[in-house]
Every structure is written in structure tokens, then in C-alpha cells.
Amino acid sequence: MKTGDVYTELNSRLKYPPSEYLRRILRKLVTPEEAKLLLQLPAQPAELAQKTGMDEEAAQRKLQEFMERGLIIRTSKGLFCFAHDMTQLHDSNLSSAEKWVDNELLDLWRDFRDAEWKQTMAGGLGDSYVQALKVIPAWKAMERSPDRGELLPEENIKGLIGGANPISVVPCPCRRSIRRCALPLEVCLHFNRGAQYAINRCAGRRISAEEAIAIAGEAEEAGLVHTWASSTPEKLTAICSCCRECCDIFAIGMEVGNIEQILQKSRFRAEVDQELCTGCQDCVERCFFKAIEMEKTPLSKKLKATIDESKCYGCGLCVIVCGPEALTMRLLRI
Asked: Which of 21, 151, 200, 293 has the greatest count of CB atoms below 10 A from its CB?
């Protein structure tokens, strides 16, 4: 295979249309010789050594390095595989240890996002590299809400965390590359097989369930929305805490106007007691989704918060900052 073709083939294996921006990232990530090795995967170290003429120990070391760089994963059968798709490569590579991620690489991923990925998202979400995300209500909001007993297992972030082993925390890959806000980076929680992968490749540090709950609480206080893409708690691999400036999926969805195709609302909605509302407007700034407005009511000359239920995604961020506790989370009963 010609040197120029190895990057074209890697691009294709990521299930992504031919892209000059992605090609620049791939050229930064791997040399032509390394690209040829990646194209020999999936394989075990002995098989890779046999295919390439490498010493088996050298093949093992190279595969470990590739894993640390976020280029490959290891399957349950022990095979090492190149990233399944573009989003897996993005998230794994950009959550790697600092020695593998420099400013040039961060800029290349940001250029790809701004020049191309945004247009891809705007054009539709039928491609395999886009997953729908689900909102998980903030646990600090639910603890002061009357319907907290209605939480299902997949909505209870404390329960999700407590049922996972192991647990790790890694840098948020989106905020790490986009750098358009100053919100916390070390809040991306990985669980079970996802956590073990992060630990094995020295990308994340192993933490306790108590530490994970504290990190989730800090993310909520900072104004980040919890999301996940798993189908059941048993398949949980990660919980993201997303911002409205940097997220490569949900922030772009809001920008291009197709957020409803990407983000699944929780079963809860914010509700306001206007007698308790002091009109401070802290909740308005907190709401990513512009679901809260200040309006005059017949009972007061002050402006009071009102919730547009159709726009509320049930994240709970507004409830956390409501000093007079006028806001609570209520189960949406249809």
C-alpha cells in the first residue's frame, strides 16, 4: 500500500466520509509506518508480530503505546483493534495522558469540529458515529425535590455510580480541545469496562464511588449537564458532564437547531413556586435550553420565573442555584 493511501484507509475504517481535516489529524497522530501497523489490526501481539516480522515483545510494547495514545481498544477476546469510528477515536485520543496530547493536536481537532463536524451534524444524524444522548437529572436537584422517589435506576446518578466497578475519571475531550469555557475538565466519569480501559492505558485515575459522586456534584454546581448514551445501567461505560460552548454533540445540536434529535429529555421538569420566587434571575442564566423567562404575574409587581415545559430538558441545573428554593423537579406525568 502506498504511503499516501494508509491515511485514506484509516479514514475509511473510522466510517467517516473522506476528509482533509480528519486526514490532518491522522497524519499528526501516526507516522506512515505506524499507520501500516494499525491496518494490520485486529490482532493479538503474536499475530501482529507474525504479520509484520516484528519481535513479539516489541509488538506488545507498540500495542500498549497505541492504546495509551487512544488509537486502539482491546476487545473482550483479547484482540487489539483500531478505533471503531471517528467519535471513539476523538474521545479516546483527547482523554489520553498529557504526554500524548499537545496544542497542535488540540487545534487540529478543533479545526475539524468547526470546519466540518458542525456541518455534518447539521446535515442529519443517521450516521453510525452519532449516538443519542440522555439527560440524567442532577442529584443535588433531585435531593430537594418531592418526586425524588420516582427516579428509575437509569436516572439515579448516585445509584449508577454505586453499582459500577471500577470507576475512573478522565479529562473531558471536548472542553480539552475546544477551550471556549473555563468549566472543570476532570469530570468525565468512566465505569466498568470503560473505566478499566482508561486505567489500563494510563489515561484516567481510579477513584471510589464517593469520589465520583463528589465530582458529579462539583460538575452540577459548575453548571454542567449530565448525559449518557448507555441503554441500561448494566451497560454503563461513561457519564459526561457537558457544557454549552464545547460539547461536540449537544452544544453543536443547540447551535444548529437539531438538539431534539440528539438529546433525550429526562422524565422530570423544573417547576416554580412563584410565591417563593424572588425574581433573582439566577435560574435564567443557568438554563442551557432557554426554558425560563421572567414575567409579571397578577400576584406581584416583581418579575417571576416561568418555565416553558416544552423547552425544559429536566437537567435540574436551575434548581441547584435557586436560593429561595422556589424551583423543584417534578415527574412529568402524561
From this structure: 151
